[in-house]
Structures are given as structure tokens and as C-alpha cells.
Amino acid sequence: MSSSDTHDGAPKPRRSTAGRGRPASGRGAPADKDIRPPLRRVTALFRRHRRWVVALVAAACLLGAVNVVSPFLLRAIIDRALPDKNAALISYLAGGMIVAALAGAGLGVVTTWLANLIGQRVMHELRVQVFTHLQRMSLLYYVRTRPGELQSRIANDVGGVENVVANTAASAVQNATSAAAVGVAALVMSWKLALICLAVVPLFLLAAIRLGSQRRGIARRRQGQLANLTAIVEEGLSVAGMLLATTMGRRAALAQRFTTESQALADSEMRAAMSGKWLLSTRRASLTMVPAVVYWVAGLAFAHGAVVISIGTAVAFTSMLNRLVGPASALQGLGLQVSTSMALFGRIFEVLDEPVDIVEKPTARALPAVAGDVRFDGVGFRYADDQPWTLDGIDLHVPPGTTTALVGETGSGKTTLGYLVARLVDPGRGAVRIDGVDLRDLRLDAVSGAVGLVSQDTYLFHDTVRANLLFGAPDASQEQVEAACRAARIHDLVVSLPDGYDTVVGARGHRFSGGERQRLAIARMILRDPPVLVLDEATSALDNETERAVQAALDELSRGRTTIAIAHRLSTVRHADQIVVLDRGRIVERGTHDELITLGGRYARLAAGVWGAGPGETPADEAAADPTRTGVRSRPDQ
Ligand SMILES: Nc1ncnc2c1ncn2[C@@H]1O[C@H](COP(=O)(O)OP(=O)(O)OP(=O)(O)O)[C@@H](O)[C@H]1O
What we know:
Number of helices: 21
Largest sheet: 7 strands, mixed
Distance between the termini: 29 Å
GO molecular function, one term: ATP hydrolysis activity
CATH superfamily of the largest domain: ABC transporter type 1, transmembrane domain
Number of strands: 11
GO cellular component, one term: plasma membrane
Subcellular location: Cell inner membrane
CATH architecture of the largest domain: Up-down Bundle
CATH topology of the largest domain: ABC transporter transmembrane region fold
Structural class: alpha/beta
Domain ABC transmembrane type-1: 54-340
Radius of gyration: 35 Å
CATH class of the largest domain: Mainly Alpha
Helix content: 55-70%
Bound molecules: adenosine-5'-triphosphate
Shape: elongated
Membrane topology: Multi-pass membrane protein
């Protein structure tokens, strides 16, 4: 289970900072960067399936042998059975050719089946490996990775390799063994003729090598362009992207970007399809010319009264060479496909090599009964080594069951502090502890079981209300689901819908209003029941009734839990056991509302500016406060 399991909602994206820190491959790596992996690494993927690989090679060798039997039988028919007019021998030899053809067909099916089996298993494992590796990546990785890039790596790159491995592995093995068998049989039949024919092989190899590197370059570019296209689709054809493009009048510009990328992709596809076609055609033509040379040499010798080879050998030899044309062409084509797939493997390994920054120690422990005591001991954090500290010298104690409200100007580090509690990021200095245990010494599922994060950007899957609610607590009963929804003040609304709890929430939950989505997220967290809660209150203005419903739901959720709230509501702050004021990553004030108002410092100024709150105010004054509360925090990117 990942540490983000209890996190309700996707952490806020940061357009402005996406480029900072270590560049990730995912952030639009140059499309033509050479990332060819070592062959050893690719073959290692197949090692687990070596028994099947041995079976495949055995079947293919058998197929190759069966395929060269017929020319020998043909030679015997022409040179022996026909001159002797031996009917029995003719039937016997022709029957043998029919059996060989049938056996060849059967073995062809077996090799195809085996190759697909191996290919699909390897690709399935690779796909799962990429997905699970990416799942372990931290929040920061996702912030800096372009949307759509990872989908492209899994769908286009693994899919591309899959196509090559599964579909052409069979013909690779079949053709290689067939070509080898034909070579051996040709030497046995007439070594002189065979040597003449084999002389052209090095030329083919040279051509194949040159074409291979050309193809790899094209493949790398093409995959990069595919990723670009996927990213544009992901960004432009989502609810948020469509809204942005429409309201900003950028639909045409987006379509133009898509058109340009699509055209570039079409050009690459064209180049890929045509690369080396002339070379290939010339080579195929020269192969088909070889039989003419055989008849020429044998014919001239025969015309001059010398019998170099028998007519049967000449016919059988050329029929065997015909069997070489197919495999040789296929092999050269395969060489190109292998080059292409190596480029794709390179892109896949690049993702697999991305280091995981939030790791679980081998000695990590569980946390059986969590009291919910949260402590920051001298915590410092920065998003990259070359950046200033976002948080510094943070010493904070949040006793079990109490509420701490974080307030401060925008960019002061409140959200980052919340991320540290949920171990979405690790501190650079000091330690964050729950019940006295450093989060880095806990198992990741212990952290996600202990800390729940409700962010303002509620994330719901495109699934039913029930499935979304059960995401964090799959074993919860219908009664528990309903109780959670009642507590979150959303049950009545859900049951009033025609499909009730089976209503599909739509992409990212857009079938529901912002306030309803928040309450669904709160119900989901109530079901999950974490002892520690990080609450990022929404800044968006809700109407009074929704506001009250959300507030009641939040109160219900926080009850009995250690709550660290990034607070925007006066009620949250006023009732907090402790208010912590952050300024440029440092705690500058702490105390209760009344204490801090009396102090007359930064909090007092902030409270007066945002809520109009002054000394001695009662909670009832809240109703008169500015409901938008935008002064504390504004997010240009939301
Ligand atoms: N992924 C990131 N990479 C680099 N810098 C970041 C990243 N996320 C946040 N920051 C920076 O860290 C600082 C603190 O950000 P944080 O989101 O914690 O502040 P905040 O108090 O929650 O602000 P707001 O109220 O606007 O949400 C800001 O200067 C911000 O630009």
C-alpha cells in the first residue's frame, strides 16, 4: 500500500514550480535522446521463462529440419525414382513431402503459440513492473512529470515492445532456424554452389546493421512524439483542460499544437516505413537472382559436356534457396524491428531507473495502536538541494486528539508542513514523529493508516459513489457507508439520486458540486478512520448552507482525532487548541486565538484583515465575517 492511500484528493499541482529540482525523464525527455539499454538487461527479462524459450527453440529447430527434408526428397524423385520409373519409390518420396509439409504447418503453429506465450508474459510483467514502480514515486515526481507522459510510457512504449516481442519473436526464431537449416542442407547438397551463394551474406549483414541504427533514431523520435500527443490529449481533453481552453479562447491554439505534433508523428511514421526500403528491395532481388546463377553455372557446364551437378541437385538446390528468400528477408526486417524495440526498451528502463525517494526501510515497523501524538523536531525541508529551505527549524507538538490550526501568508509553507506529516515528502533536517516514532522508521502502510489527508482539491474516481467511498476502506458495510455519509451530511443527497449509492460520479467527480464532492471526500475519510488528520480547508467561497454542511462534516471528521488544519475559517482557528503562525517557513507565533489576538502581533493583524476578528469576539461574530476569506491564501493555479 502506498503512503498516499489515505489522501483524499490530489495534492495541488504547481505549474510554476514544475520545472524545479531534478529533471525527470517524464518531463518531456528529448525525443531523440539515445537511451539504448544493454542487451543483457533485455535478455534478463526472458530468463524467468527459459523453459519456454528452450521449448520454442527446440520446436523451431525441428521446423527448420522438417522444411529442408522436401528438397532432398525432390532430388531423389528427379535423380532416382523418375529415371528408374520406380512408381513405389515415387509414391513413397512424394508421400514423404506431403507429411513434411503437414508437419511443418503444425510446428509453425506451435512455435507461434510458444513465442506469443513468452512475449505476452514478459510484457505483462514489464507493464506491472512499470506501474508498481511509478506508484512508489513520490509526490514531487508527479509534480514535475508532464501529465500524459506516464500513460504514454505504459501504453505506447510497452505496447510497442509488446507488438514486436509477441508478434515477431515467433518469426524471428522460425526464420533463424529455417535459414540455418537451409544453409546446412545446401552445404550437404552441393558445397560449391552453397559457398557461391553464402558469399553474399556479409553484404546483407552490413546493410542490416546500418539500417538498424537509422531505425533506432526514428523509433526514439516517434515515441517522443507519441508521448507529446498523449500529453496534449490528457491536458486538453480533460474536464479542467477543456474548461481552461474554452474560457481562455485557446481551443484553436491547442488544436494547432495537436496538428503540428500529429504531422510530425506522421512524418516519422513515413520515414520509419520507408527507411531502407530500397536496400531491402535490392537485396530481395539479388536473392531471387541466385537460382538463375545456379542454372547458368550448371547449364554451361552441362552444355560443355561436364556434369558438375545432377539436374535433381540443381532443381532441389534452387527450391531450397527459394525457402531462404522468405526467412532472409524476414530476418532483416526483424533486425530492424528489434532495433526499434531496443529504443522502446530504453524508454521503459529509463522509467524503471527513476529513483524512489520515499522508501520503506527493511527494518520498518508497524504502529499497532496509534494515539496520534505528532511531533516536529527541528524540521527543515527544501524542494531541491539548490533551493532555499521552504521550512526551517520547525519544532511543534500536537498532542493526541487536539487541533492545531496552521495560518500564514500564501507560500509560507503550510501545505508543505502537511505533506511532511503524511510522509509525502521527507524532511532534509530533523524528524517528524508519530507517537515518538520517526515516520521514516515506520512501514508505509503504517503511515497511511495513521495519517489521513483531506485536500481542497477533491479527487474522485470515475466510478460509483459507493466504490469511491469504499476506496480507503474496502471492507466497510453498507451501514457503515451510510453512517459515514450521514455524518458528512451527504447521505440525504445521495439517496435522493435515481441510482443512489450506485450513481456514477463522472470524471473527477464533476457530476457533483464542489461542496458535495468535499463532503463525499469527508465521508470517505470517516470510513478510513485515521487517528491523525491533515486538513486543507477549501478557500473557495461556498454558499451559506453548503458552508454549514461542510463545516458540520469537518467537525464530525475531526472529532477525537489529532487534527492539523491548514485553516481558512475563523471557526476552525478559534476553536483550535493551538494556532501556529508560519512566516517564510518558520513558526513566528503560537497560542490560542485569544492569546494571539491579545499579543497583537502577526496573527492579530491577519485575523483582523481576513475575518475582521478583534479581541473578545465571540464565535457568533463569525457569521458577519467575510465569507470569501481570500486574504489568507490565494492560489493562482486553482
Ligand atoms: N513541488 C515544489 N517544488 C518546488 N517548490 C515548491 C513546490 N511546492 C511548493 N513549493 C514552494 O514552497 C513554498 C511553500 O509552499 P506551500 O504550498 O507549502 O505554501 P502554503 O503556505 O501552503 O501556500 P498556499 O497558502 O498558497 O497554499 C512556496 O514558495 C512554493 O513555491
